[in-house]
Design a protein that fits this description.
This protein has 16 helices and 23 strands. By secondary structure, it is an alpha/beta fold. The chain has 2 domains: 261 residues, Aldehyde Dehydrogenase, Chain A, domain 1 (3-Layer(aba) Sandwich); 198 residues, Aldehyde Dehydrogenase, Chain A, domain 2, CATH 3.40.309.
Length: 512
């Protein structure tokens, strides 16, 4: 059975299996290959290779770095079906869903192709007499990306392309549950002409993560995962002098107003809650319905739609949703169903009763759509991120109650409101304490030239991801003040503080 390698200095590297994990196909439960886990020595090798490559790569003109990414984008387009299948095989999401996630990653590569424009500095002439000022953004050094299992193509592509075009070198540590697609991404970038050592990949677990976030030669860390781990990585990285952006979990709310098109809202919210088996940080997991009459109508429609959600393996036609990532995660999610029932919520649709029709997939990690009604803010199924196909309905009496409920939740990643009223939508977008807002858009993931990032416990960072935010994160500011004095003229004010005040003030006659 094949073993998934690391990638160091431009080449695949197979190490002895001192520590190894199986990689499963979630649709069948079968082990499809193994992955060797890096120790701290291998992590150090990767960092040192990136450090060695940094001087030449950072000195490479931005236009030359961008040209590599133009070639890379073409290779990604050519191999998109290969990449989607690797995502599906190890994560379990349907092929069309996997393909869409790869496309969202490619959009950031397209942004990276604009590096010469993105990295332009600022220049001010004559800020004082014969003094000019230039502001630059320069690379940091060795940067690290630690990515989750649920988007093994998209999230890495949100990180290393922009880090690299800024002139940094990079070490990627993908999830050990989905190692193959990130490896293919790195391989294709070297095929596009990336110099040796600029991008390295370490397969690993907690041991590799701890070695990376404390390594003295790592300048910056980008992380996506649970809030508990995000907060820990942020604290540890900052304590070791790193620049850190750590993106955590979510409990995304959709507010349904009485004037909304309930058929459209039910369809949109079902897709956002159950698509990708709910394993995405932008999934909607709570629907807040305003008004009891509206709630009764909406719950009836959503119940019918939830009952029609079909399970399927990656390439099965007419399937709405694939399996969860692992048997352990399946147990965790189903345990939340028991918790919700014990807390008094009404389980209208129980995904445990849904079975897969294909006998070959009976051992897969499947759970059908699950719908709770009469959820309240004190329940664990409301407060905690479940990360599965579980949607809760909270009934409120008015808009202000809905807004207050969303704002009081500890997470603040994404939210949506369904309404036909512009004033309601504008007020919600303005006053909600959430980083990404959709108006009749169920999963408001921004375009790549805008920023991605939540608020509150969903992010531990001052700078968000992709768009110009990533350029800021992966570079640092340098301001250069220049004066070229005229030949033979001596400055007799060398000991005086310089400012724009050294320009002679205008006399009354000189005013226009």
């Amino acid at each position: 059975m094949a073993t998934i390698p690391h990638w160091l200095n431009g080449y695949a590297v197979h190490t002895e299996a001192t520590r190894q994990l199986p990689v499963h196909n979630p649709a069948t439960g079968q082990v499809i290959h193994h992955v060797n886990l890096a120790d701290s020595d291998l992590v150090n090798q990767a960092v040192q290779m990136a450090k060695k490559a940094f001087p030449d790569w950072s000195a490479t003109p931005a236009i030359k770095r961008a040209r590599i990414f133009f070639k890379y984008k073409a290779l990604l387009d050519k191999n998109i079906d290969v990449l989607a299948r690797l995502v599906s095989e190890e994560h379990g999401k349907l092929l069309d869903d996997a393909r869409g996630s790869v496309l969202r990653g490619i959009e950031v590569v397209e942004l990276a192709c604009g590096a010469p424009q993105l990295l332009k500095g600022w220049f001010s002439e004559n800020v004082a007499t014969d003094v000019d000022c230039t502001t630059l953004r320069q690379a940091l050094g060795v940067c690290v990306g630690i990515t989750p299992f649920n988007f093994p193509a998209m999230i890495p592509l949100w990180m290393f392309p922009l880090a690299l075009v800024c002139g940094n070198t990079f070490v990627l540590k993908p999830s050990e549950k989905t190692p193959s697609c990130p490896l293919k991404l790195v391989e294709l970038l070297y095929e596009a002409g990336l110099p040796e050592g600029v991008l390295n990949l370490i397969q690993g677990d907690k041991v590799a993560v701890e070695a990376l976030i404390t390594h003295p030669d790592v300048a910056a860390i980008s992380f996506v995962g649970s809030s508990t781990v995000a907060e820990s990585i942020h604290k540890t990285g900052i304590a070791h002098g790193k620049r850190v952006q750590a993106f955590g979990g979510a409990k995304n709310h959709a507010v349904v107003m009485p004037d909304a098109n309930l058929d459209q809202a039910a369809e949109a919210i079902a897709g956002a809650a159950f698509g990708s088996a709910g394993e995405r940080c932008m999934a909607l997991s709570i629907a807040v319905v305003v008004g009891q009459k509206t709630a009764d109508q909406f719950v009836a429609k959503l119940t019918t739609r939830s009952q029609r959600v079909t399970l399927g393996a990656q390439d099965e036609k007419n399937a709405d949703m694939g399996p969860l990532i692992s048997h352990e995660h399946l147990k965790k999610v189903t345990h939340y169903l028991d918790i919700g029932l014990s807390e008094g919520a009404n389980l209208l649709v129980d995904g445990r009763l849904v079975t897969h029709s294909n006998p070959l997939n009976q051992q897969g990690y499947y759970l059908g759509a699950c719908l709770f009604d009469h959820v309240n803010a004190h329940m664990r199924i409301y407060q905690e991120e479940i990360f599965g196909p579980v949607l809760g309905i909270v009934r409120v009496n008015n808009f202000q109650e809905a807004l207050d409920l969303v704002n009081s939740h500890p997470y603040g990643n994404g939210t949506a409101i369904f309404t036909r009223d512009g004033d309601t939508a504008r007020t919600y977008a303005s006053q909600v304490h959430v980083g990404m807002v959709g108006i009749n858009v169920p999963i408001p993931v921004p375009a790549p030239f805008h920023a991605f990032g939540g608020w509150k416990k969903s992010i531990f960072a001052d700078i968000a991801m992709h768009g110009t935010e990533s350029i800021q994160f992966f570079t640092r500011l340098k301001t250069i003040t220049t004066r070229w004095p005229a030949h033979g003229v001596r400055d007799n004010q060398a000991f005086n503080m310089k400012s724009s005040a050294d320009i002679s003030p205008m006399t009354a006659e000189e005013f226009p």
